[in-house]
Specification:
This protein has a single domain, classed as TIM Barrel (Alpha-Beta Barrel). Helix content is about 45%, strand content about 15%. It is built from 12 helices and 8 strands. It has an 8-stranded parallel barrel with strand order 1-2-3-4-5-6-7-8, surrounded by 5 helices. α1 runs parallel beside α2, α5 crosses α7 and α7 runs parallel beside α9. 1,3-dihydroxyacetonephosphate binds next to β8. 1,3-dihydroxyacetonephosphate (13P) binds next to β8.
Length: about 260
């Protein structure tokens, strides 16, 4: 049974004071018992990670610490980059990689994302591997070509066990931050194709184990419908994760 994973990607929002307040407020709203239904990870900006880690550890909250990005090298002359070793030392469990904003704004290629997946797993953390199509690609009927192509290239060289252990986030780019959510049927269709692609490339056991999230304008009001779909095992949440009340509702799967 795949336990849902709800991940809050704060992107470049919340300074470390705001981060502490948000997590403390969330802790009032979503206690340990409520985490029976879903795992929850929080992905603040790098400058907040230590502060959020301290709150999670000292109050023994059940949330997993996440990061939004990292470099694939362990150390060296990479001004401005952050090593997976540093994240692991901070207790980070999940690292987002290949987000469409990193791909489109910062030029991350499938090849770079592939190296990141390997580096994140080599340091004992779980990649949240993102894929998704643009509106033009969807309208041209190229959704699966784009998404499955990203998966084959990004995960090439991974063993079935490694693929089984990761999280894939399907995020249609046209649904990110736009208020337009893919219908649950559309999202399910692509997530089912993702699982079939994993089965074809890495075997049925990996396909049954891998967790597939949907991302793109997820809210408290639409999570229940999305999570009810057989191939959607959670959500990668942007805007709605910044507000503790709204994110709490999502963590409780809309109930
Ligand atoms: P929104 O939930 O704001 O649409 O963002 C989705 C996303 O990109 C999460 O990584």
């Amino acid at each position: 049974m795949r336990k849902p994973l709800i991940s809050g990607n704060w992107k470049m929002n919340h300074n470390h004071f705001e981060a502490i307040q948000t997590v403390q407020k969330l802790a009032y709203l979503v206690g340990k018992d409520e985490l029976e239904a879903a795992d929850v990870s929080i992905h603040p900006p790098f400058t907040d990670i230590r502060s959020v880690q301290t709150v999670i550890d000292s109050d023994k909250l059940g949330y997993a610490l996440g990061a939004q990005h990292c470099h694939y090298e362990e150390k060296g002359a990479f001004t401005g980059e952050v090593s997976p070793v540093f994240l692991q030392k901070l207790g980070v469990q999940y690292v987002i990689c290949g987000h469409s904003e990193r791909r489109e704004i910062f030029g991350e290629t499938d090849e770079i994302v592939n190296k990141k997946v390997a580096a994140i797993q080599a340091h004992g953390m779980t990649p949240i591997f993102c894929c998704g199509e643009t509106l033009e690609e969807r309208e041209a009927g190229d959704t699966e070509t784009k998404v499955l192509g990203q998966i084959r290239a990004g995960l090439e060289g991974r063993t079935p066990e490694q693929v089984a252990a990761l999280v894939i986030a399907y995020e249609p780019i046209w649904a990110i931050g736009t208020g337009r959510t893919a219908t649950s049927d559309d999202a399910q269709q692509v997530c089912a194709a993702v699982r079939a692609c994993v089965a074809e490339g890495w075997g049925n056991d990996a396909a049954q184990a891998v967790r597939i999230q949907y991302g793109g304008s997820v809210k408290g009001s639409n999570i229940a419908e999305l999570i009810a779909m057989p191939d959607i095992d959670g959500a990668l949440v942007g805007g709605a994760s910044l507000d503790a009340d709204e994110f709490a509702r999502i963590c409780k799967l809309g109930v």
